[in-house]
Amino acid sequence: MGVRLHSGAVAEVIIEFPPVNALPAEGWHTLARALGTAAADPRTRAVVLAADGRGFCAGVDIKEMQRTEGHEALLAANRGCAAAFAAVYECPVPVIAAVHGFCLGGGVGLAGNADLVIASDDAVFGLPEVDRGALGAATHLARLVPHQLMRTMVYTCRTVPARDLVRFGTVLEVVPDRGLRAAARRVAAEIAAKDPVVIRAAKASLNGIDPMDVKRSYRFEQGFTFELNLNGAGDRARQRFVEGR
């Protein structure tokens, strides 16, 4: 359980936090460190980010927040998410997200910052943040779906299937779940076969011309989450979720 790193030319970072891969605050930092370790290895030419279990990622562990006094768990989770999302984006080699089942909340932050996304045929993407009394990762959802759909998904908390993202060109392909990891490794191997110096330069250049500063944009969103917690709306929404209401 936790985060596993398999090193090599195609490194694999695997998330496993049963039952639904809702990461505790420290889990996000563990994920960021694993990605950093992979990035620091000169042998690494591409990274596959995947998960074991029922889905790719259900976001933060809300129950951890509700059983912790004060705001420390919330602050730790927000810092952890920011660190993990940045580790994906700033990885000096391409990151391929292999998404299965649900990709929600913080999962969208990871997938949206990846260079490529391959999904299983049961994968869905969504931001339930409004129902949880929080905001965030619309920055990353905007990299996966058109603007008006992003707004609809934020306001309604609806999910969108991976097959729709293929139409938008933001998911490379949809494959059966049993072939997901192999499909991600196949694309990663294609990239790893290129000149690594050129690929790293390509990643740096593409980040340099990105029209959105994803770190600053996400931090702006987080500010509203803090505001919702100060006025009590965040805690009320999280408690409704914990109580199943």
From TrEMBL:
Q: Does the keyword Disulfide bond apply?
A: no
Q: Which GO terms describe its biological process?
A: fatty acid beta-oxidation
List, in alphabetical order, the Gene Ontology terms for molecular function in this entry.
Answer: isomerase activity; lyase activity
Keyword Cytoplasm attached: no
Q: Which domain of life is it from?
A: Bacteria
Mind telling me which Pfam families this protein's record contains? ECH_1 (PF00378)
UniProt keywords (A-Z) are: Isomerase, Lipid metabolism, Lyase
Similarity-based family: Belongs to the enoyl-CoA hydratase/isomerase family.
What's this protein's name? Answer: Putative enoyl-CoA hydratase/isomerase
